[in-house]
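Researcher: Can you fold this with pyridoxal-5'-phosphate in place?
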Amino acid sequence: MKKTDSRRALQTRIIHPEGELAPGFESFAAPVTRASTVVFPDLATVRSLDWRNDKQWRYGLHATPTSTLLMQRLAAIEGGEHALLQPSGLSSISNVNFGLLKAGDDMLIPDNVYSPNREHGDWLAEDFGVSVRYYDPLIGARIADLIRPETKLIWLEAPGSVTMEVPDVAAITAAARARNVVTAIDNTYSAGLAFRPFEHGVDISVQALTKYQSGGSDVLMGATITRDRALYLKLKQARMRMGIGVSSDDCALVLRGLPSMKARFEAHDRSAMALAEWLKTRDEIAVILHPAFADCPGHASFKRDFTGAGGLFSVVFHERYSAAQVDGFVEALELFSLGWSWGGAHSLAMPYDVGSMRTVASWPHRGTLVRFYIGLEDEADLRADIEQALATLA
Ligand SMILES: Cc1ncc(COP(=O)(O)O)c(C=O)c1O
C-alpha cells in the first residue's frame, strides 16, 4: 500500500487511503475479498503469471481469497484435491462438458439425469457436433457395451434426483477406466457427505452448492471437484476461456452454510425417512421412491455405498388418481411450497410427468410422481399437512 500524500486532493486521498483496515482483527467469519482488478507489487510479478499456478492471484474473475477458501473446504469435504466454482450447478455441468468435449466426441448420460443436464447434452448434439447417448441408470457393468472409441465422458447421477434409481457407480467407473473414459458425477444429492465419489472411481464430482451447502435458498453456485490435476487444469482453462466466475459475497454465504451442513443434512434425513415410512402405510400411495427402502431401484448400491439420504424422496400415487387430482393434492399442501431446487429450510413438493422425460429406460409406473423435499419444519406438522392434503383426494 502506497503512503497517502496529504498534499493530494481529497478525491485522490479517498481513492488511495492510508493503512490496513484492521490489523490483527480475527473472527470466525470468512472475510469477503471483492475484486475485479488484483494489484501486483511489480512488473516481475506480472510477467511471472501463469494461469496454472493456484498460488498466484491474477484477476478477481479467477479467484479471490474468499473463493479460494471455499474451494479448499469443498475439496476437503468431498475428499478431492482441486475445486473450481461456477455461478450455478448447471454451469458446473456445462464447464465439464465444454472442458472435455469437442466435435466428434461421444458422451453417455443416464436417462434419469437432472433434466437441464439432458438439455445441455441435447444442445451439444444439435449445435456442436458431439454425439450424445442416454443409458439406463441401472446398467452397471453393461455400460462397457456402449463405450466407443470416441466416447470421452460418462455422466452419472447418484441417485437420479427425481426418480431415485441408484446406479452401481463402481461398476460404471471400472468399465470407463478400462477404456480411458472420464466419468463425472452429479453428487448434489449427497452434498459430498453421504457418498464419496472418488472412493468409487469417479474422476469429477459436481455439486450444486445452491442446495445443502448454502442451506439458505438464496445463493446460486456450483463446484467441480477432482483429484486429477490434468483434468482440473482442463476444467480451469475452459472456465477461464468462457469467462466464468463467482462473487466473493456469494462465496461467503456458502462458507457460512458449511459448518451446519452435516447437522442439517442429518435432520432432513431423519424427517424424510420418518415421513416416507408413514407414507408407505397410506393407501393413496402406490410406491415410495426413497433409496433407503429395499424396493427402490438400486437400493443394494445405496446400502453398499451411501451413509445417508438427506431430505429428498418421491412417491408415486395410486393410478386411480388422475394427474389433475394429484395436482390438487400438491396445491392443497400448506407447508410445502411449489418451487425448484432444495437444500434450504423450507419443504417443497412438485409433481413430475416422468414418462415423457425418458428415452431409454422405460418408466414402469402409471400413477403420478410427486417429489418431496423435507425441510426443517416440525415433522409432525409436515405429516398433518400431508394428511389434510391427502384428504382432498377422497
Ligand atoms: C441434481 C441437480 N443437479 C444440479 C442442479 C443445478 O443446480 P443450480 O440450480 O445451481 O443450477 C440441480 C438444481 O435443481 C439439481 O437438482
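Model: Folded with pyridoxal-5'-phosphate in place. The pocket of pyridoxal-5'-phosphate is lined by residues 88-90, 114, 161, 186, 188, 208, 210, 220, 222, 340-341 (CB under 6 Å).
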